[in-house]
Amino acid sequence: MSATPETWFITGASSGFGLAFAEHALARGFNVVATARRTRALEALAAQAPDRLLIHPLDVTRPGDPEAAVAAALARFGRIDVVINNAGYGVVGAVEETPEPELRALMETNFFGAAAVIRAVAPTLRAQRHGAIANISSLGGQLSFAGFGAYSASKFALEGLSEALAQELAPFGVKVMIVEPGAFRTGLAGAAMRHMPGMRAYEEAVGPTRAFAHGMDGTQDGDPRKAAAAIEKALAAPKTPLRLVLGADAVDAVRAHAETLLGEIAAWEAVARDTRHEA
Fold first, then answer.
1. I want to staple 144 with a disulfide (CB 3.0 to 4.6 A). Which of 1, 67, 152, 210 is the partner?
2. Domain spanning 7-248 has what CATH number?
3. Which residues on neighbouring strands pair with residue 178, listed in sequence order?
């Protein structure tokens, strides 16, 4: 670690992954900017290292909030080394069961909110010619299941943005990494999961997903603290992966999905290639 401690800027730090990331960074001796819509839950964290912690309110959907939080971070610590876009929540429901306002609200937080934070911090990272952005996606950012369409749509969008962002910021020495966790013991399956009213027509397709989402809270195999350590390790690596899949369940699901995709490409390759315009 350098003489000047790293500064981690974390959104959605009041619980779950965000809180685990903040606790990990403080334990490692880093400076931490812990942001959240409701900061009261972070008061206990302040006692751990008050000289290395800045708690700042941040609603990623409110215009001006990301810029204000970044400015406060720079005023306190002078630099930002790692940005973790973690703020977000989940929705369970078939596409037809998910009203447009619910879908738009989900996209505002999970996608547009993350994009707003990126735009607010990118000038600083470019000027430093150093830093990293870790965008917290999900195994649901690579594949989807009946009932998770809205949530996956928000994560698919974040991943597409992140792939381009990685290429755009690489010339400035700034890394971008997509984190794809499986089931970790966070609050996502509890208070951070919204369940849409069910329609009888989708009981067979979506019912198992609803039951899974309700039953997994507090029983997930993944440890958020180990996820934090894995993210730090990957960001510090000479060759940081574009995607970091976390959890045995995520590894198995993403691999199986990729193999299915490759199989479909092979099966339909002749048809796909036979679409060239004939001169």
1. 152
2. 3.40.50.720
3. 135, 243
Catalytic residues: 137, 151, 155
Q: For residue 92, what is the enclosing H or E element?
A: strand 90-92
Of how many residues is the chain composed?
279
Cα dihedral: 167, 169, 174, 176 (round 10): -50
pLDDT, one tens digit per residue, over 86-127 is: 999 999 999 999 999 999 999 999 999 999 999 999 999 999
Q: How far apart are CA 123 and CA 110, in angstroms?
A: 22
Give 109's DSSP letter. I
For residue 65, give both structure tokens.
Answer: 């909030």
Cα 203 to Cα 61, 96, 98, 195, 206: the distances in Å are 33, 13, 14, 14, 5
Structure tokens at 120: 């607010």
Q: How far apart are CA 179 and CA 174, in angstroms?
A: 16
Q: What is the pLDDT of residues 203-241, one digit of tens each?
A: 999 998 888 887 766 667 788 899 999 999 999 999 999
Any idea where the domains of the chain sit in the sequence? 7-248
Tokens of 223: 């440890």
CB atoms within 10 A of CB 210: 19
**Claim: this prediction has a pTM higher than 0.90:** yes
Which phi and psi (to 5°) does residue 217 adopt?
-60, 120
Give the Cα separation of 83 and 159 in Å (integer).
16
